[in-house]
């Protein structure tokens, strides 16, 4: 039996990925291009059209019923536009209209990349079965998304769950977003590495100064490396506790490169969470590592498209 | 024509108010008792039963179809219990079951007091017409509630919107809740007054050291009083911006005694909001004073009951 499919696009500052996905979240066809992030807007769009072209060229395309897009933000789902921080050629760029044209008028659903990851984790990953969840990506930046009352909560513009840019330190360091003391400014991979270096941590002979190298040093017992992860964990805990206190989530799922640090992150995170999540209704809050891999963005974009497409019933978002 | 009514209860640490309310939010009958807050649980419940007794004794009672309760928190709507911080005799107290018995089995809807205020402001006050709103009470404590996608968002336990206990200062002062740097620990009336006194502010001849007296001094130009309100405004702004960044609200409504300070609060608050609400999708966020008066808790409790009672259609929550 030939069931309907959806097309999914995962648009980031490094790559543009596309796929045809079935109602069970299986990827049947893939396409990918590097993002020409520093080029003008039309050049970036041509890369997207190349990816779409590979999908429409397949015999499977006749079964595609809708398109889901998860894009680096900010996005504006109500206007159908995107303004990814790392793609300066796109400011209020009418991505939904362009993708609709490139797909002969299919329905196009746009969400932010943090929301897409959340849709994937809720459908098939660590947030499955949870009606109220926060899913986060902690890597170069810190992003996220929310599930509330069993439904994805993208918000009116598709950006809800932007936990990386809530301030947990009123008078903290200035963040590139313009605010101060943002979770991302403290807990992102580059900030974990920066703080370790400033504290006197020395990279190994390979010169690797990434957060992954700091995590390795922390596992080997380097106190400066441990302290940098503890500080990141404290900021993440304050942000997660704030989210739970505001909207009553019962699980926070953490993915991304920093999320892969394992106990070096999760042990101080669980400890700090007990300090900040104090009210009775948030004390049962748990944290868990993400389960979806690098396809989370594509699977989540597909889930968003399926949830708006009544002919499909596979997606639980 | 004799339309249906609902009974509303507003339960706080100082008073227990009750009312019969119609589908337009009009209060047709009132009853009130002081809360015997330091007595045992059954004594507190007898005060609630006295209030209910005044309502059931009225000929209007035959038209009552449901009961809405807004209670000081934390509450647990899923269990039907309440544990108000200022009523130590009630811990996991089965209020819903007791009220059901006292009203001959009417349907009982329980929400936290911040959620009740929000229901009232959304139905008839400053948040009317806004599909995504935060409503706050800033007085002895700082409470709140959320409207998301046009609906009240009480959360699974009825406590969502607890903005007073999100941390905006990771390593800030210890809060009675156990966390650090909570919005309430910085912005509540008693904390505004404490900070002014610590900074050298001197009360007038009447010896009034309330936040209202600090506000009056600030209006007269006292720099320490002004600074204490600016600091409260900064904490409120960080908390409001965090909420908007997480769930995409477009208005924050502020009531309570401190909310009545007017420009002394709202001018620095709007300024600070521009510092913390920086992402494109939160820049249009506005703040406004609450419009509902002291009946907000009763009207909101009524709204919650009406929204669960299909025979009524007056409440827009």
Walk me through the structure:
The structure is a homodimer of 317-residue chains. Chain A is of the alpha/beta class. Chain A folds into two domains: 5-112 and 294-307, ATPase, nucleotide binding domain (Nucleotidyltransferase, domain 5), CATH 3.30.420.40; 126-289, Nucleotidyltransferase, domain 5. Chain A contains nine helices and twelve strands. The first copy, chain A, has helices spanning 41-56, 95-102, 113-124, 183-187, 189-198, 211-219, 223-247, 263-276, 296-307, and strands at residues 5-11, 15-22, 27-34, 64-71, 75-76, 81-82, 107-112, 133-138, 142-148, 151-152, 251-255, 286-289. In chain A, strand 5 and strand 6 form a beta hairpin. In chain A, helix 1 (41-56) runs parallel beside helix 2 (95-102). The radius of gyration of chain A is 20 Å and the shape is globular. Chains A and B meet through helix 7 of A and helix 7 of B.
Keywords:
5-stranded mixed sheet, alpha/beta, Nucleotidyltransferase, domain 5, 12 strands, globular, 317 residues, 21% strand, homodimer
